[in-house]
Amino acid sequence: MASSGQKVVLITGCSSGIGLRIAVLLAKDEKKRYHVIATMRDLKKKDKLVEAAGDAYGKTLMLLPLDVCSDESVKQCINSVKDRHIDILINNAGVGLLGPVESISMEEMKRVFETNFFGVVRMIKEVMPDMKKRRAGHIVVMSSVMGLQGVVFNDVYTASKFAMEGFCESMAVQLLKFNVHLSMIEPGPVHTEFETKMMEDVAKMEYPGVDADTVRYFKDVYLPSSKDIFEAMGQTPEDIAKCTKKVIESRNPRFRNLTNSLYTPIVAMKYADETGGLSVNTFYNLLFNFGPLMHITMSILKCLTCSCLRRRTISPN
């Protein structure tokens, strides 16, 4: 139970990666300002979180089961919180999907949207009325630069993030009238066990029904380029957790928060040309015409990012 003065923070998707690191960072806050409710679909996967939390587990951090794809599970989870009082909701639960779209079934696509989009909507719908009544609250959504800029072979995942960005941008206007803030966290590539395994798995797949050229472009062009980008520009879950903590502690939290300053020019390029041709043609040339040059550039960037020239997290103030 939260102590007087503590803010109650509920986080989804805490079994690993970014969600786990956010939960631990807030639970171990030196000033003990947060009472963290870490949630996950299957509590059997709690061991990594419990180990990382250490002495904070059972004190400033507690666990609850939550499946963001279930209306009943969401309602039961929120109802189990004392007075349904949640000061900060951090929507982190999400799933990825990578590969040629011809090989992806409609059911797989719906599963991504069910978690990445409708899961966020369920959580916001459940906590928003109480926050509006109190005229206080902060909703944080873990988005992605892919919610701002489309990326080849990430079509469905990108679409789910675009949908979430549009929904939240609309909601943010209404919520401000009730003194409730809504913030998007927008990481680029992040080194997690999930990402590593997904990249390894898709490289081994055969993709029946997809033309040979597309499979070759995916395996021989996209995947190596993606690996270069991850190695040169990738952040850690700890980086994203620190960024998120800065955002929730800001007096005037920003709506959009890119965590990786190296991606700012990429996003700016899209909005510099209303026709969309600049970004589409640039990414086409980088991937298909200047692949070797891109590899060299990423190698140089990787060296630079090992020094103090790299600014890994944003400062919302």
UniProtKB/TrEMBL annotation:
Fetch the SUPFAM superfamilies from UniProt: NAD(P)-binding Rossmann-fold domains
Q: Which reaction does it catalyse?
A: all-trans-retinol + NADP(+) = all-trans-retinal + NADPH + H(+)
As recorded in UniProt, its EC number(s) are 1.1.1.300
* Binding positions (NADP(+)): 13-41, 67, 161
Keywords of the record, alphabetical order, are: Lipid metabolism, Membrane, NADP, Oxidoreductase, Sensory transduction
UniProt main location, coarse = membrane
What's in the GO CC field? cytosol; membrane
Q: Where in the cell is it found?
A: Membrane
Binding of substrate: at which residues?
144
Domain (Ketoreductase) ranges: 7-193
Q: Which segments cross the bilayer?
A: none
Q: Which CDD domains does the annotation name?
A: type1_17beta-HSD-like_SDR_c
One annotated GO molecular function is: all-trans-retinol dehydrogenase (NADP+) activity
- Kindly identify the residues recorded as the active site: 157
An example of a Gene Ontology BP annotation on this entry?
estrogen biosynthetic process
Question: Which PANTHER family has this protein been placed in?
Answer: RETINOL DEHYDROGENASE 8, RETINOL DEHYDROGENASE-RELATED
This molecule's function is given as: Retinol dehydrogenase with a clear preference for NADP. Converts all-trans-retinal to all-trans-retinol. May play a role in the regeneration of visual pigment at high light intensity.
Q: Which family does it belong to?
A: Belongs to the short-chain dehydrogenases/reductases (SDR) family.
* Protein's recorded name: Retinol dehydrogenase
Q: Organism, per UniProt? A: Salmo trutta (Brown trout)
Q: What is the lineage of its organism?
A: Eukaryota, Metazoa, Chordata, Craniata, Vertebrata
Q: Give the encoding gene's name.
A: RDH8
